[in-house]
Inverse folding.
């Protein structure tokens, strides 16, 4: 199995890709451990702050020792320089808010999953032509599950994951899976700023378990 297939399978098997960023290194690591305890084996860390690269480097170090099954992805990649930086520190997969041709050309030949955000058929066609196989529908709350239903038959060889606006409720998750997605990206609805500020890792673990149970019941 290729690296791209391995990461794709891991995300699809758990049906959710949790994503978060926290400026504090310790909080970042504790959240990662909580997600791992809940059963998560693929996580997206978003590159949205000055400490993101250092924190991600530490995540890789801790993962290698304590959580060898965990796949660590980096999100909010907007240019080639960022992709190169996180490639050097060992990111397993890369996610963008939009399609970046240079990033695709850098990562895909290295057998690394690149999932760009797309919100139009034109963007999806462009990404597919560049070798992308896993599309992030973004922003999910603006597009809605109806958009996925309308386009899925046009792109039979692609996997889709909405990010943005996916709620932790059965109704919200089920609407997307019925529309044809392979997984859902979930950020602040699952890993809220309040929970992170309170360092409430037990609730993060429990809420993640609940979402995993909902998804497994729907499959």
């Amino acid at each position: 199995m290729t690296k791209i297939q391995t990461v794709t399978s891991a995300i699809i098997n758990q049906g959710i890709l949790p994503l978060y960023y926290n400026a504090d290194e310790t909080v970042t690591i504790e959240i990662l451990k909580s997600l791992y305890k809940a059963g998560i084996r693929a996580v997206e860390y978003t590159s949205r702050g000055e400490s993101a690269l250092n924190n991600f480097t530490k995540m890789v170090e801790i993962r290698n020792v304590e959580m060898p099954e965990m796949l660590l992805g980096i999100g909010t990649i907007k240019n080639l320089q960022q992709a190169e930086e996180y490639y050097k520190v060992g990111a397993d997969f890369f996610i963008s808010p939009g399609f970046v041709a240079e990033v695709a050309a850098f990562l895909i030949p290295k057998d690394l999953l690149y999932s760009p955000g797309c919100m139009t058929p034109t963007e999806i066609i462009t990404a597919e032509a560049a070798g992308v196989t896993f599309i992030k529908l973004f922003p999910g709350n603006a597009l809605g599950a109806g958009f996925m239903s309308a386009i899925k038959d046009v792109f039979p060889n692609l996997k889709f994951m909405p990010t943005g606006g996916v709620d932790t409720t059965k109704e919200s998750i089920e609407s997307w899976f019925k529309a044809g997605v392979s997984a859902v990206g979930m950020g602040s609805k699952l890993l809220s700023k309040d929970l992170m500020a309170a360092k409430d890792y037990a609730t993060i673990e429990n809420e993640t378990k609940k979402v995993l149970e909902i998804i497994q019941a729907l499959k």
